[in-house]
Amino acid sequence: MTPLGQLTRLAAGLIACALAPALASAQGQPLACGAPKELTRLTQPLPRTAERLAKHLPLTIVAIGSSSTYGAGASSRAASYPSQLQVDLQARFPGSRITVINRGVNGEEAREMLARFGDGVVKQNPDLVIWQVGTNSVLRDRDITPTAPLILQGVAQLKALGIDVVMIDPQYTPKVLAKGDVQQMVDLISAAAKKSNVDLFQRFAVMRYWFEHEHMAFSDFSSPDQLHMNDWSYACLAKLIGGSIAAAAQLNVASAQVHTVAHAVMP
Predict the structure, then answer these.
(1) 265 within a domain of the structure (yes/no)
(2) Which pLDDT score is estimated for 250?
(3) 210 within some domain
(4) 228 in any annotated domain
(5) Is residue 173's pLDDT more than 70?
(6) Residues forming beta bridges with residue 129, ordered by sequence position
(7) Contact 60, 262 (CB under 8 A)
(8) Which residue range is the domain that position 9 belongs to?
(9) Which residue of 28, 79, 200, 214 sits 20 to 30 Å from the alpha carbon of 163, by its own alpha carbon?
(10) How many domains, the chain?
(11) How far is CA 70 from CA 5, 101, 106, 255, 266, in A?
């Protein structure tokens, strides 16, 4: 086996070992963690992330959001999605030192998160920011229309600093689904991400896929409060986001290599 093949096999083994304890149903049976590529694919480039990984440089990610970023519903902070994302990405890219900083605060809405960008995000000098937003405004029956300009403002601030951005929309759980504005919020976040030319990880659609197509019970992927995610879904979310980031970064590197080769052979 080639050194690259050995490295790939080792990385796959590390990912499996790290995530296996969490990837089980509420009944203790293993559940397959997956979703269609069209729901997890990141369509915008992550140039800063790709460059850091390609050069084996340290990569810093800040995950900002509310309780489902903090890890409410998980058995420990180590079971939150940012903690497990760090494990996943470190296994995929053992040549780079990867740090994922959890800046989730329970109960916050977009305006409060934006107010923390200076100290909570920018001062960490991140290469990539993952911004989860929208759920609390829906739960509190707020007028959701002000969320769009806040997202645009926050993303513009990050992009001006050369930081890659991935948005995450609300979770698909019973208490969120009980609110009539949830689909409108999902659509609003999607439109804002598209307008800003940043990536969106479609958590709502992924979790709906688990429920409608994989026929999972809500208890398999939501906590007993029927609002937050649980250890299994946080682990699966981390695995899927990790795979999406890896694919986007590698595609970015491949495109840059093609461009470099083409430029080199030009007369």
Answers:
(1) no
(2) 84
(3) yes
(4) yes
(5) yes
(6) 62, 165
(7) no
(8) 3-22+37-260
(9) 79
(10) 1
(11) 36, 10, 7, 35, 51
